[in-house]
Amino acid sequence: MSLQLSHITAGYRRRPVFRDLSLAPIRPGSLVAVVGPNAVGKSTLLKSIAGLLPVAGALTLDGEELTGLSGARRVRDIGYLPQTLPQAIPLVAYETVFSACRAARADWSREQTEQAIETVFATLGIRDLALRSLAEMSGGQRQMVGLAQVLVRQPGLMLLDEPTSALDLHWQLNVLNAVHAATSQRGAIALVASHDLNLALRFCDQVLVLSPGGHACLGTPQETLTPSLLARTYGIEARIERCSRGHPIVLADRPLAP
User: Fold this and answer.
1) Which of 104, 198, 248, 258 has the maximal Cβ count within 10 Å?
2) Which of 189, 222, 194, 97 is nearest to 148 (CA)?
């Protein structure tokens, strides 16, 4: 199941953010970090792929045009997690995840649904939240429940808009481990918008760097996150070093003059 964007124009009626954007096919099993400075279009791109904003051009998943999918197919095949946190409603976490799963996987038996929920709660490490009301949770806990609502449906394409923004380091690692496992084990594709370049280097198979003016560069982390690209995109002088365990890390030294 590959994702292909060809000659995409997307954004808002009077202000397109991307014009004639084309990317190399994104292969099954890929975890792709979507990075770039503020207001460059990360959320816009994910919303456009999810069908929440109008798109011109060819946008296909496994050769099938996404804009032509029925509502039921879209809910089943595409999992979108927005930046906004799930509302602090009185329902308990288990109920909200169960409802999300049934909406997308009506063909599953109750036993299959319950097993999928158990697996996701265990994978994310949030079993203790299952019977807690969202109204009693912190923002980070609600963000984890929102991610569970996406993962439990087992979509072929996951679009996650800053899924670790409200989380501490422990839970950030939990989330990225879970998303990486979902892509590699099921052959799914995940696009994860993030501001953390080091998490992108550590966990992601590819990095999609969005730059001002609607420009984009897709490749492996080592190919894309270079000092010259970081200078052009972020306006910083930076180095790529390796830690004691051999993982590449970005070290930002100073901002560059405009």
Assistant:
1) 104
2) 97
pLDDT at 166: 93
N residues, the chain: 258
> Do 212 and 127 share a domain, yes or no?
yes
Range of the domain at 253: 226-258
Split into its structural domains, the chain has a count of 2
- Do residues 139 and 234 both lie within one domain? no
For residues 206 and 30, the answer to whether their CB atoms sit within 8 Å is yes
Confidence at residue 125, expressed as pLDDT on a 0 to 100 scale: 95
Helix residue spans in 3-92 (DSSP H):
42-50, 71-77
Q: If we measure between CA atoms, which residue out of 250, 123, 248, 128 comes closest to residue 175?
A: 123
List phi, psi (to 5°) of 69: -70, 145
Please list the ranges in the chain whose pLDDT falls under 50: none
For residues 56 and 176, give the distance between their C-alpha atoms in angstroms, rounded to a whole number: 31
Q: Tens digits of per-residue pLDDT, 209-225?
A: 999 888 899 999 988 99
**Strand-pair category, 248-255 with 236-242:** antiparallel
Residues 23 and 85 in one domain: yes
CATH number of the domain that 49 lies in?
A: 3.40.50.300
- Look up tokens 């994910």; give the residue: 46
pLDDT of residue 257: 85
Supply the pLDDT for residue 95: 96
Give the span between the Cα atoms of 150 and 217, in whole angstroms: 27
**Are 152 and 118 contacting, i.e. CB atoms less than 8 angstroms apart?**
no
Residue 122 belongs to a domain: yes
